[in-house]
Amino acid sequence: MIALIGLVIGVVAGLILEPSVPVVLQPYLPIAVVAALDALFGALRALLDGLFDERVFLVSFLSNIIVAALIVFIGDQLGVGSQLSTAVVVVLGIRIFSNVASIRRQLFRA
Amino acid sequence: MRPTGPADASMTLLNEVMKRPLDPSYVEVAARKAAGLDTDRRGVRVAWVLVLATLLGAFITTAVVSLREPKDGVVQARALLVDRITRGRAQVASLRADTATMSQRIAALQSAALASSDPQLLASLNQYEVVSGAAAVSGPGVRVTLDDAVAIRQNPDQADPSSRVMATDIQEVVNGLWAAGAEAISVNGERLTSLSAVRGAGLAIQVDLSPVLPPYSVEAIGDPATLRARFSRTSASTRLEWLGARYGIVSNVAGVDRLQLAGAGQVTLLYAGVHVPSAVGTKAPTATPTFATSSTPAPKGNTP
Q: How does pLDDT run across A54-71, given as a tens digit for each residue?
């Protein structure tokens, strides 16, 4: 619950203040958003399974974003940026789909 | 004996990604809580959870907002370019009008100066200007119109690119008209001088660096009946028929009672010499136009 309140406050603050993202970070924003989506759906699934814990949620949120951005950054340095980012997007996409599938099963059977 | 793992042990990665149970952390932490091993101090935990959640929320919102922005930027950039193009065109039009006025004045001064000192030179100059394209002319003639196939007009992106009229087609038509005996030719209002070129730049056609758009109208001054008869015997006429049959390019050759072709204006000066009045030597032109001129020079300079 605290985590949810904090998230909402953060979203509202982001919408009102509209900070600008430094140009260096601009290429990693799309992958960060997809990684955040994966963490969100994982949390929803845990919530519906009765296993939700806010620390795990926040840490997984943060580490997903950082690891995804790091992988794309390293890929850019090595020259395989687009391939690595494709791989990250594929994996995150599969995870999102499998989480959404269990959420659907929970919602429409339970 | 070596213990055997599950049959699909080598597919751990795919299993992990596709069939994995819930993120193991959730399960472990739930087990720990059930066993009562969670001993964090409540206040500290609330504090950092709140801070971290706020930061993450703000970050994701910023990311999403700034990823949506490029659309506005693109629209603005396009509007800016369109505005610049419109202003550029207006500028070109006004500069052209200026050039036309200046050419008229120069031509008037020129003929005034020559009329008194050397009328023969003036007469041959008039003839040369008609032939070279510097002077505006009017008279009967022929108009050849060409247009892209109907498919291009209806669906420009998907139609076959060869159904567009190309620069080479217009070049053939112009050459055919010259061979048929035209005295002056203009393409979409651009007068062809002795130094003119009709060139293609990608899909666009340019006459002397001015772009022309379909439908194309090639106007030639000469006796309409003779011009049409001779033009139909040139290879240009065959090509027009072939283009129509093969690609659907629409073309038409028609006689016109009165055509008015603008002059190309002042020509670039390449060579100048001292003028010796005709009393000293003969100044008869060495080259005369091969056909009797049925065109009469319009008032000197460009007719707007």
A: 888 999 999 999 999 999
Please provide residue B255's backbone torsions phi and psi, each rounded to the nearest 5 degrees. -80, 145
Spans of all domains in chain A = 23-109
pLDDT tens per residue, range A21-36: 888 888 889 999 999 9
- Cα A32 → chain centroid: 6
CB pairs under 8 A between A and B: 125
Closest residue by Cα to residue B293 from B148, B181, B206: B181
Rounded-to-5 percentages of helix, strand, coil across chain B: 50, 15, 35
Architecture of domain B96-265+288-297: 2-Layer Sandwich (3.30)
Best of A45, A57, A65, A92 to disrupt the B interface (most B CBs within 10 Å) is: A57
Distance from CA of B243 to the nearest CA of A (A): 46
Pairing outcome for strands B198-201 and B296-297: unpaired
**Residues pairing with B199 in the sheet:** B206
Q: What is the ipTM of this complex?
A: 0.78
Kindly determine whether residue B56 and residue A9, on different chains, have CB atoms separated by under 8 Å.
Answer: no
pTM of the model: 0.49
Q: By CB neighbour count within 10 A (0-12 exposed, 13-18 middle, 19+ buried), where does A1 fall?
A: exposed
Phi-psi region of B136 (alpha: psi -120 to 50; beta: other; left: phi over 0): beta
Parse chain B into domains and list their residue ranges.
Answer: 96-265+288-297
CA distance B95 to B100: 9
